[in-house]
C-alpha cells in the first residue's frame, strides 16, 4: 500500500498534513470547540476579528483554549460586505496575530451569503500588494477562480453550497473544472453538511475542505469532527487511488469459468 | 493640569489622562496588549509603537482580538 503519511499539501509555502480546516463559531463553549478541533485533527482554524468587550476585559478568550502556537489561526473576514471593510479587518488581524496567511470573504448579501466577486477581486489585489497571502472564498466560477489566482490568491475556495446550509456539494462539475484549471490549492469552503459531502469534495481533487456549521451544529460535535477527519482522509485516498469507471450494466465479480 | 481627554473606544465614549499612550489605555482597560490589535484614527497602530503614540482629545480607537468564527 502507498504510504499516506507523506501526503501533505502546501499553501503559500506552509505545509500541512491535515486537509481539514475547521471554523471556531457556533460552539456551545470554548471547551467543546477545543475538543472538536482536537478530534478533527485540523492544523488550521478560521477565526473572526471583533471588538474586544471593554466592559468585561477578563472574559475568557479563544486563544486561552486553542493555542495559536500549535494551531494556525486563519483570520477570516466573515461579515464584510465590501472590499474596504475586508481589507481593514485583515490589516488588524495581521497586527493581532503577526502572520500574513488570511482568509478573504466578501459577501454580496445576507440572505445567501454568496460572495461578491467584484469586491472580492478588488480586495485580493490590494491584499496581495500589501504582502498578504489571501485564501479566497469565491463563487463556483472557473473564470473568476483564474482571475483571483492572477490577482494573488494563494488558494481558491469555492462554495459547495450556501454558507451554513449543509446542502452538500451542489456543483461537482464546476468544482472539478476549477480544480483542473488552478495552479494553487482549491478547497471547498461552505456547504458541507455531513461526512459524505467532505469525501465528495476530496474525490473531486480538492486539496482540502473548510467547514464550521456541519461540526458545530451536529448533535455530537466531537464525534462529527472525527467523522469529518476520516471522511476527508477517505475521500483523499479514493482520489489518489483512482476510482473505477462507471458502467451502465452489471459486471460479475466472480469468474464465469468453472461454473457447475 | 489639562482636562482629561475624551476618546471613542470601540464606539463608546471613554476618558483618559492627558499624556496617556495607547499602551497605557490598553493596560488601563485591563487588556493584554500582546493579545489585541489597535486601530488609531483609522490607521493601524503597530504593536511596537503602542507605548510611543500619545493620545489626543477626540481620538477614535478600535481594539480588536480573535474570536470564534467560520
Provide a brief overview of the structure.
The complex is a heterodimer of chains A (260) and B (70). With 260 residues, chain A is α/β, with parallel strands linked by helices. Chain A has eight helices and ten strands.
Task: From the structure above, extract its key features.
heterodimer; A: 260 residues; alpha/beta; TIM Barrel; five-stranded parallel beta sheet; three-stranded parallel beta sheet; B: 70 residues; mainly beta; Ubiquitin-like (UB roll); five-stranded mixed beta sheet; 37% strand; globular
Description:
The complex is a heterodimer of chains A (260) and B (70). Chain A is of the alpha/beta class and 260 residues long. Chain A has one domain (16-239): TIM Barrel, CATH 3.20.20. Helix content of chain A is 36%, strand content 17%. In chain A, the strands form three sheets. Chain A has a five-stranded parallel β-sheet with strand order 5-4-3-10-9. In chain A, α3 links the parallel β6 and β7. In chain A, α2 packs parallel to α3, α3 packs parallel to α4 (142-151) and α6 packs parallel to α8. Chain A starts with 8 loop residues before the first strand and ends in a 19-residue tail after the last helix. Chain B has 70 residues and is mainly β. Chain B has a single domain (3-63), classed as Beta-grasp domain (Ubiquitin-like (UB roll), Roll). Helices cover 10% and strands 37% of the residues of chain B. Chain B is built from one helix and five strands. A five-stranded mixed β-sheet of chain B has the order 2-1-5-3-4, covered by helices on one side. Chains A and B meet through β4, β5 and α2 of A and β3 and β5 of B.
Amino acid at each position: 500500500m502507498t504510504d499516506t503519511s507523506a501526503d501533505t499539501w502546501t499553501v503559500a509555502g506552509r505545509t500541512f498534513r491535515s486537509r481539514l480546516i475547521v471554523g471556531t463559531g457556533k460552539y456551545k463553549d470554548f471547551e467543546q470547540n477545543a475538543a472538536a478541533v482536537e478530534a478533527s485533527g485540523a492544523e488550521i482554524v478560521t477565526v473572526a476579528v471583533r471588538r474586544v468587550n471593554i466592559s468585561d476585559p477578563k472574559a475568557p478568550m479563544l486563544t486561552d483554549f486553542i493555542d495559536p502556537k500549535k494551531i494556525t489561526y486563519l483570520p477570516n473576514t466573515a461579515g464584510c460586505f465590501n472590499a474596504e471593510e475586508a481589507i481593514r479587518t485583515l490589516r488588524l488581524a495581521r497586527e493581532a496575530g503577526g502572520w500574513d496567511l488570511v482568509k478573504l470573504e466578501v459577501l454580496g448579501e445576507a440572505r445567501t451569503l454568496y460572495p461578491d466577486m467584484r469586491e472580492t477581486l478588488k480586495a485580493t489585489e490590494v491584499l496581495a500588494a500589501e504582502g498578504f497571502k489571501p485564501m479566497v472564498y469565491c463563487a463556483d466560477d472557473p473564470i473568476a477562480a483564474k482571475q483571483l489566482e492572477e490577482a494573488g490568491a494563494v488558494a481558491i475556495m469555492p462554495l459547495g453550497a450556501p454558507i451554513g446550509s449543509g446542502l452538500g456539494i451542489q456543483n461537482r462539475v464546476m468544482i472539478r473544472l476549477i480544480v483542473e484549471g488552478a495552479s494553487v490549492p482549491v478547497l471547498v469552503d461552505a456547504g458541507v453538511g455531513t461526512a459524505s459531502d467532505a469525501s465528495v469534495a476530496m474525490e473531486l481533487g480538492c486539496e482540502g475542505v473548510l467547514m464550521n456549521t456541519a461540526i458545530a451544529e451536529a448533535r455530537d460535535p466531537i464525534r462529527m469532527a472525527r467523522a469529518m477527519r476520516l471522511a476527508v482522509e477517505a475521500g483523499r485516498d479514493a482520489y489518489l487511488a483512482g476510482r473505477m469507471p462507471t458502467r451502465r450494466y452489471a459486471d460479475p465479480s466472480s469468474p464465469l469459468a468453472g461454473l457447475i | 493640569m489639562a482636562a482629561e481627554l475624551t476618546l471613542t473606544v470601540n464606539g463608546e465614549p471613554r476618558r483618559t489622562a492627558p499624556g496617556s499612550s495607547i499602551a497605557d489605555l490598553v493596560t488601563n482597560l485591563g487588556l493584554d496588549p500582546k493579545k489585541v490589535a489597535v486601530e488609531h484614527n483609522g490607521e493601524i497602530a503597530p504593536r511596537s509603537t503602542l507605548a510611543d503614540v500619545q493620545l489626543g482629545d477626540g481620538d477614535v480607537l478600535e481594539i480588536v482580538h480573535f474570536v470564534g468564527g467560520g
